[in-house]
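Example 3.2
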Amino acid sequence: MSSIATSRPRFDTPARLAIGVLVFAVLGLTGTAFQPDLGSLDLPRLSIVVTVLAILGVRYSLGFARHRLGDVIIGLVTILSAWFLVETVGNHQGLAAPGFWFLTIATWFASWLFVERMAHWRGLSPFAQKLVNLAIPLIFGITLLVLWQLVVVGAGIPQVLLPSPGAIGTRLVSSVPVLWADFQQTFLKAVLAGYAIGCGSAFVVAILIDRVPFLRRGLLPIGNLVSALPIIGVAPIMVMWFGFDWPSKAAVVIIMTFFPMLVNTVAGLAAADAMQKDLMRTYAASYWQTLIKLRLPMALPFIFNALKINSTLAMIGAIVAEFFGTPIVGMGFRISTEVGRMNLDMVWAEIAVAALAGSLFYAAVALIERIATFWHPSQRG
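Structure, written as tokens:
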């Protein structure tokens, strides 16, 4: 009985995904892809690719080809299938029929299967494992962009409602000077200046609160009150105080980043336990010696948490603040004006630049954290 049981197919998550590839590939090949029919030039390529996916799906569902070579083959075939679908749908905008959507679902399941298998690769060298860990989210993100392209073009969604990634990419390439000027105004001036001043001043105030205990009861409630102020109410006031240029946007960023840094730093300074503090007292260490050698290192994980949170809040605050008055440059200004002109591809291009800048900013802070807190348990392994 045991030998019979072990010879049965393993219907785990990869097997279910493989069966999904098979089912939807067959449905896609038996149905019309577009209205009117796809024609003799495009259907054979799609048929060959998706048929290979179906065959791999059968093999995988039965437990065969469960190794890295089989996984790589699935990945390559999935890339070909996605490429053919994107290339073909461009010639049949808004004419997608059920057969096309079945092929799209089959390709999505194949991509999911490939990423699922990559996540279980073991025994690689450290460098290869890092590449695999980087490739998994990259492949997942590219798959989402491909699905976005197929849905928008295949369903014929108007560009005013949702432009395709291809249209957004074209706008990115053709508008580099404008996007660079907006990036300089918003990120290099307002975000970085406000981030540095807001986080730096909050750190100093946290040291004062720790040094003078009665300030905790007075300053923390005020900081909480300031953090609760709505940005759409504060931004116009900052514009009236500091003018239409980037200093008013930096002031909004300061307000948004001050309180998270203050609270996390105060909590981090209290992270050292009583035994560690008693040990410093036995060494006759002063307050500042204890602060620098014990309490600040213990507070670094809390401080970097605040820095990472503020790296995204700063970008949001600066862009929203530009909606309420700015020179004729800046990400927020460009988004608000291009929405009025119905140029949604430019709006999404600005959003893409902002998202990329915010992600890289966050990654830089996380890298510095990894270097500075290598001793912390969260950074081991």
